[in-house]
């Protein structure tokens, strides 16, 4: 790492250089300069431009003598060794109430991804993942399990809805697009991981680039032994480290594709956009970017010279240098390997492409049995052509999910049933389950309402009897109207909070509001007594 190996020496003319370069308002930067050797530099803009964990410790940076193309393998990048089944279940318990069988099934499936990679090569190819089918009524937590898995999984993860695909030959997206979308996710995740590993090396290059812009390349036109040039460079290097040049304006050549996204997404990695006609806009953008570079010696997107401060230029140049380092890494190869060996596809609403035997014999549906037939080779194992290369699905994990309230799992094609051997049944939610959903998860509905009203300066609280009354009412509506599971709680809670939320911003509103059992009954009385409940059905 360049910054860690440099010794900063003040040249005799340092004071004069400061007076000639720095505006008077920059002197105040001395009071905010921090020196943190663990970060490898003292970039004063890092704390505002990126989250703290975007500056990894020096242990993750490759050694200075290690080429960028000799980085750790894909297996170490997408390792799930720390995700033991008990840890996965414990994490899911923080957000999902009950459904222990479903939690155990997905936890074991995720752990088996790591176990398989520990097998000897001759056995590795023989072990294939055991795909899962989750069956349960709407609102019981199936989709929430997938959402939490995406955050827990240190591997390419894609959630799709089966109803968005049509049979091959009909207008719409075919199921092969699932693998293409997964490859987009894998590519973005691989790039993000490599950028984190290369960030330390790139920061050293950023400092040298800034020095080149400020005073010219080291030794340029003066010979390698130019004492005055080295002295001046060391002086400016010291000022950069002290944060004295952060407000100095410089001109930087910025490629047009810099700052268009990527690199700092803290959430789950998502696929690039595909429009409603199935056209991959990212592929078109990649092609246009290549064409925009012109011919001759120059390749890549055109650049534009922009004037900005050193603080702003630091982040721009860091992204430019990271892109240069990434060119030395075979991202496509690693992304394909990650998708093939660690890819997880969650197919939601799989019951919506099933039809009862009587119905399917009378009508034809491009989004039903034909899609099931197209899914067969994908789940069993086939090779799909993508813009990154051929991708094999033999070792991808597929998890199907559906309510199956209008059809039965046996209505699926027998071949597809056999390719989803692990069946997990999720239970409907009872009144006690609804009460736990309101109180146990970290981001439960009660806490959400309390924090929302707190922004108006009003202290909101719920009595325990009131929470139990909310759960009781939601369970009653699920039994008598339509069972929509935990989603019913949103309807009931909004009904209770409607007047409180409306008046919270007014000055005459009390500083403290307590939701009691009597208040809940009063707000929900018309819901329980009215014969027409259509207004409250989602």
Automatic annotation (TrEMBL):
Residues 71-82 have a biased composition (Polar residues). InterPro entries: AAA+_ATPase, ATP-dep_Clp_protease_ClpX, ATPase_AAA_core, Clp_ATPase_C, HslU, P-loop_NTPase. Residues 22-82 are annotated as: Disordered. It comes from the Eukaryota. The keyword Protease does not apply. GO terms for molecular function: ATP binding. Residues 429-524 form the Clp ATPase C-terminal domain. Keywords: ATP-binding, Chaperone, Nucleotide-binding. Residues 45-63 have a biased composition (Low complexity). Residues 128-426 form the AAA+ ATPase domain. Belongs to the ClpX chaperone family. HslU subfamily. PANTHER family: ATP-DEPENDENT CLP PROTEASE ATP-BINDING SUBUNIT CLPX-LIKE, MITOCHONDRIAL-RELATED, ATP-DEPENDENT PROTEASE ATPASE SUBUNIT HSLU. NCBIfam families: hslU, PRK05201.1. This is Uncharacterized protein. It comes from Cyclotella atomus. The lineage of its organism: Eukaryota, Sar, Stramenopiles, Ochrophyta, Bacillariophyta.
